[in-house]
Automatic annotation (TrEMBL):
Superkingdom of source: Bacteria
Native source species: Flavobacterium humi
Protein name listed in UniProt: Acyl carrier protein
PROSITE patterns: CARRIER (PS50075)
One Pfam assignment: PP-binding
InterPro entries: ACP-like_sf, PP-bd_ACP
Domain annotation Carrier: ranges: 1-79
Length: 83
């Protein structure tokens, strides 16, 4: 799975699950503020990532995640580490 596919899948479920306008999802946009995430939303996000990519995310994984690009990179690295 390449980076473009990862981004397309992530953006697709963010639009569907979090009802966000796809136009506001840009690599530089702030993840938390753009999505309006609260603690329950993070749980939903983790579940969706696990079901779509088969990787687990923990609280520590979100430290330092500011932008959508940071989030894309995190998922890509988790997928690569999984093998």
């Amino acid at each position: 799975m390449n980076k473009g596919e990862i981004i397309a899948i992530i953006n697709g479920f963010l639009v569907d699950e979090f009802e966000v306008d796809g136009d506001v999802i840009t690599p530089e946009a702030p993840l938390k503020e753009t999505l309006g995430l609260d603690s329950l939303d993070y749980v939903d996000l983790v579940v969706v990532i696990e079901s779509n990519f088969g990787v687990k995310l923990g609280e520590a994984d979100f430290v330092g995640i500011v932008s959508f690009q940071d989030f894309y990179d995190l998922i890509e690295n988790k997928i690569k580490a999984k093998g």
